[in-house]
C-alpha cells in the first residue's frame, strides 16, 4: 500500500521541527556565550569552559539512530517540483531509494541526484558534476610523485588528526599504487576559528587543468541588496567541497602520501584550481530557484547571506533556504550559522549594519592592521615582500575604509618600480620615505573608526541593473528563463552586425528601466510602448523598429508571449511609421560615369603603384557587382576562377544575406576585350600577381602596410572612398556604400532588367529594397557589368 501521498505533510512537519530545533540550539549557544562573558567568578568560568557542549539533545551520539516508527515509510523529502521531461522522470524512477539519513558525508550530493532532477532550470553540466566530477584536463598529466616537506612533531600530530577526520568523513581512502597516479604534497593552514585546514598542494597538477573565468558574488553584492532596517541571517555550509564526488577514474590524480601510506581524495578538495568555479556553478540554479521565489540572498562559496524586509520575512526565507539546501544534500553548520534575524550580521569578514546602513571592520581585524601600521612606521626600510603583504592587508579593508584605494597607490607604485629595477626580486629592500610614512599614518587614523556608509538616505532601495554589453544582457535573460544550456547557441544565431545594432537599443532600455525602477527582463506592453514613444523624440522609425526586435529577444510579457509581437506594441510601430516614415540615405546619386572615366585613366596597370591598383580593383568590383564591402572582404583567391571570357567568384563565408535556404553570392563578370582599362578580369589577375610576394593567406585583399594582414569591410570602404574623392565625387555627402546606389541606378537607366539588378546586388526576386532605397535619379547573364560602363 502506497502511503507516501498521505504522509508527505508529516515529512514536511518533521523537517520544520528539525529547523526549529536547530534554531533553538543556535539561540542557546549564543546565550551561553553572552552569559559566560559576564561571569566574574573564576571557578564558575573554569567549570563552564571545561563542560562540553554536545550538538545532540542526549549527549554525544556518533550516529543518528535510524527511525523505528512510521518514518521508515519515507524514502525522500518533499519534492521541489515535478519534472515534465520524460527522460528526467525515467532517471528519477530508476534512482535507488534514499533514507532520510545518509551515512556518508563526502560526495553525498550524488546520493541526492534524483532531487536535483526536480530543480527548475538545472543544466546538464550541473547534473554531470553532481553525478561525479571529472577534472577538466587540457592534457593528461604525467605520472608524478612529490614528497612532503619535513614538519614538526606538533604538525605531525595535527596532520594525523586531520587524516583520521577525513577518513571518518569518507573524503579520503587508502589506495594502492597506480602507474598513472599523481601524488602531491600536503600541508595545514590555520582557520579563523583556530583549527587547522588540511590542504593538498596541487600546484603542479593545476598546470594541467583548463582555466575558465567565472563570476562570483561578494560583499559588494550584499551591500547592493541591503535596505534600511532590513533583517539578515547567515548560513554556513559544512565541509562544502567534500559534498561533491569526484569521478573514480580521476581520483588517482588527487593522491598524497603520509607515513608510507598512500591516500586519495574521493571528493572535491581544497587546493584544486577548478574547485571554486565548480562549487559556484552547482549552486547557481539553487540560488536562482530561491530568488525566483522572492528570497533575497548572496552566496560566496559556502557562506550565504539571506535578507528580508521584516523579522518574519527573513525567518521564513531562512527556513525555506535551509529546507531546500538540506533536501538537495547540503549540510548546514548550525554552530557557525547565525539563524536569528538581526539588523547586524558578520558576512565575509565585515559587519553589515542595516540600522545605520554601514559596513564595519571587526575590531580584531582593525587592531591587527593597526599593529602592522605601527611596525612599518618604526622602520626606514623593508623588503618588497613585506610591503606587498602589508598592501594586501590594507586592500582587504577597503569596504570599511572610505578613500582607502587612494592611499594604497603609492605602496603599489613603489613595489612595482622596485621590482622593475631589481628584476622581480621580492627580497630586495625598499626605502620608506616620508610620503609612504604619511600614507601609513592616514591608515592608522582611519582604522580607529573603520566604518563606511553604504549609501545616503536619498539613495533608492531599487538595485539598478549594470549594463555591460548586449550579449551578456541577453545571456542573463535566457538563463532566467531556464535556457542556460542553449544560451550560446541562441546568441550565435545573430550576426555581429545585428548585435552592434541591438547594443544601443539595449543600453537605452537598461537606462529607461533603471530610472523607473522596473525589471529589465519581465515587463508589460504598456511599459514597452512608453519606452518606444520616449525614443521617438530623438530617433526615427528604423531605430525604433530595431529596439522592438532587441526587446523581443530580451524581455517577455509572460511565459508564453513575446513582447515584440504584442498588439499594443505592433500598433505603436505602425504609428511611428506614419509619423516618421523611413527615408532613403540619398535623394540623388552621383553619375557612375564620373568614376568610370577616372578609372579609365588608371592604365596600364604595370605603371600604377600597388596602392592605386588596389583601390582601382576594389572600386571596379564594387561597381560591377553592386555588392557590399563586407562581401568583397570575404573573397578568397582559391574561390576565384578565371575562364576564357569571364571570371567566376564564389563567396563561401557568411555574409549579411546568408541564411537558411539562401544561396551564397556567385559573381559572374565578363571580360571587356575592347576596354581593357575597365576589365575587372584583367585587373584582378594583375592585382593578384602584384601582391603575391606580400601575401600570406588565401584572402584576396590584404593590407598595404606590414604585416599585410587580410582587410575588413572598413578598410575596403576607405579605399573606395579615396577613389570617389579622386574622381571628383563629394565624399562629405556620399560614402563608400553609395557605389551600390550609383551602380544599380546607372544600370537601370541604361535599360538593364530589374530582375537582373536584384540578382547581381544580392536582393531576393520579390525584394522592393532597390525601388524604395537605391533607385535614384541622375544575374541571369552578365549584362549588368556592361551596362554600368555603358558598353554595348
UniProtKB/TrEMBL annotation:
Q: Name one GO molecular function term.
A: DNA binding
| Bilayer-crossing regions | none
One Pfam family, short name please? RVT_1
One GO BP:
DNA biosynthetic process
Q: Which UniProt keywords apply?
A: DNA recombination, DNA-binding
Tyr recombinase domain residues are 588-790
At the top level, the lineage of the source is Eukaryota
The record's section on Gene3D superfamilies has: 1.10.150.130, 3.30.70.270, HIV Type 1 Reverse Transcriptase, subunit A, domain 1 (3.10.10.10), Intergrase catalytic core (1.10.443.10)
- The chain positions of domain Reverse transcriptase read 170-352
Question: Which PANTHER family does this chain map to?
Answer: REVERSE TRANSCRIPTASE DOMAIN-CONTAINING PROTEIN (PTHR33050), RIBONUCLEASE H (PTHR33050:SF7)
- Protein name in the entry: Retrovirus-related Pol polyprotein from transposon opus
